[in-house]
Amino acid sequence: MKPFGQRLAGALAHRGPLCVGIDPHPRLLADWGLTVDVDGLETFCELCVEAFDGVVAIVKPQVAFFEVFGSAGIAVLERTVEVLCSSGTLVLADAKRGDIGSTMDAYARTWLSSDSPLCSDAVTVSPYLGFGALAPALDLAAETRRGVFVLAATSNPEGAQVQQARVADGRSVAQVMVDEAAVRNAGADVLGSVGVVVGATLTEAPDLSALHGPILMPGVGAQGGTPDDVRRLAGDQLRAVVPNVSREVLRAGPSVSALRDAVARTVDGFAFLQA
Fold first, then answer.
1. Which end of the chain, N or C, is less surrounded by CB atoms within 10 Å?
2. How far is it, in rounded angstroms, from Cα 85 to Cα 123?
3. Full-prediction pTM beyond 0.85?
4. Catalytic residue among 96, 231, 232, 251
5. What range(s) does the Orotidine 5'-phosphate decarboxylase domain occupy (predicted)?
6. Residue 21 DSSP one-character state
7. CA-CA distances (angstroms) from residue 81 to 60, 109, 146, 161?
8. pLDDT at 275 over 70
9. 154 within 8 A of 163, measured Cβ to Cβ
């Protein structure tokens, strides 16, 4: 299997620069005419898989919306990930895990080990116990040729309290995270497999010029981020950007054709990323 960065670059080139979330929020389930329970969750995911499989570059299930239903919800997530991965659609598990030592190792094995029922192509991680604490996930991802997306500069207002704090050399904490990810991507062909998360609603992004990895940009659409914001924040790294859209697409459901039309419209708005 090729490294995640290479596989992602190929998917972006062939299917357009878009990550679509599978976010089974209770309100969305109700809006789709589904029950807010495991049966509704399963139908929601089946429709999303039918709409997005083979159509978008990467799909991002939001793990929390499955966990809320307990073991039955996790079983739905397992089936969703398995179907997408087996058909060749890249899956990014939005789990935002971050811990130390053996606990981080367990999180890594859950999402990145080939023999795990939840194994995905990549996982989001939180580095705010120190970037070095992510080593179990980063090392296992390199071993299994999967990917990791590190939270760097998120769009929530509370994030600035930590992410914009300055370290001794004057860099912001967010910049340190980007720079540490860049070290992990050194020497990679095409695109490294350690990405960062940078919110599309920010006024300013960290310097991404040396990252040589994918840049996931959530916050596009319903949260207020626009293609112009993506262009401004990405600078000369446009071809590494993966805009993440969830509600803007999902509110078109439950019709599979309407969901696909929403994807097509969104992809058209980001055509400049592949120019």
1. C
2. 14
3. yes
4. 96
5. 17-262
6. E
7. 10, 15, 14, 34
8. no
9. yes
C-beta separation of 83 from 49 below 8 A: yes
Please name the amino acid found at residue 97: R
Residues 6+ apart with CB under 8 A from 187: none
pLDDT tens digits, 166-193: 999 999 999 999 999 999 999 998 999 9
pLDDT band at 99 (very low <50, low <70, confident <90, very high): very high
Tokens representing 263 are: 């994807």
Q: DSSP secondary structure string, 114-137?
A: TTSTT--SEEEE--TT-GGGGHHH
Burial class (CB in 10 A: 0-12, 13-18, 19+), 273: buried
Asked if residue 17 has a cis previous peptide bond (ω within 30° of 0), the answer is no
Let me know if 96 is a catalytic residue. yes
Q: Which amino acid is at 24?
A: P
Tokens, residue 64:
């929390």
Over residues 120-171, the pLDDT tens digits come to 999 999 999 999 999 999 999 999 999 999 999 998 889 999 999 999 999 9
Q: Which of the 8 DSSP states describes residue 170?
A: S
Name all domains of the chain by residue range, CATH numbers in brackets. 4-274 (3.20.20.70)
DSSP state of 76: H
Give the residue carrying structure tokens 């089974």: 24
Among all chains, which residue has been given the structure tokens 């040729």? 145
Report yes or no: 150 and 125 within 8 Å, Cβ to Cβ. yes
**Three-state DSSP class for 151?**
strand
